[in-house]
Design brief:
alpha+beta; seven-stranded mixed beta sheet; 5 helices; 26% helix
Length: 196
Amino acid sequence: MSDSALSRAVERHAAREFGPDTGRAAVTFLGTEQIEVLRFGPDRGGIVRYLTLGMSREPMTAADSAVRDPAGPRAELVLSLRGRRDSVLRRLAVLAAIPVVEARPVAPGAVLDLGEPLWDGAPFSAVLVAEPGGLLPDLTVPDEPAAAPVRFLPVLPMTANEAAHKRVHGPDSLHQRWLAAGTDLRDPSRREVALT
């Protein structure tokens, strides 16, 4: 399957769940192919979804791997927020380029640190990669039975302190703190959870 055909399949798959996109931006990084970020919504609950398009073009391969595994994992990132924060578009594309630029596969439990606000004025500079399946089911790559399905990985905004806590204590500890505090992880102006 060609790269463009796979991107179209991913886009159709997302549109079946979220409806037609309401905006998009494309970013090209030196030495990489273009990554788009699509905006869906807001839905009736005011939730806006931002979905990367292009990260799944190549199977993810670790830097120490001698060969590219065509059956390696493929993924796209999904960020859910209450209300639009369109300045996140380029920054989310930067995170989606990590597997190619840094040769670092992205998997649930990983921290992706941007080193700058995720969107203009955001108190968050990193995301925790969550387990897939809750927002979008996996997409089987058409006409390529040996290829790994495309997984849609939710990303949860974190402050620098929350990211540091996760690195020391693990994702479960941070999730427990969020749950105990009743944290709405889709709230773009939420406060940092108590970590002590």
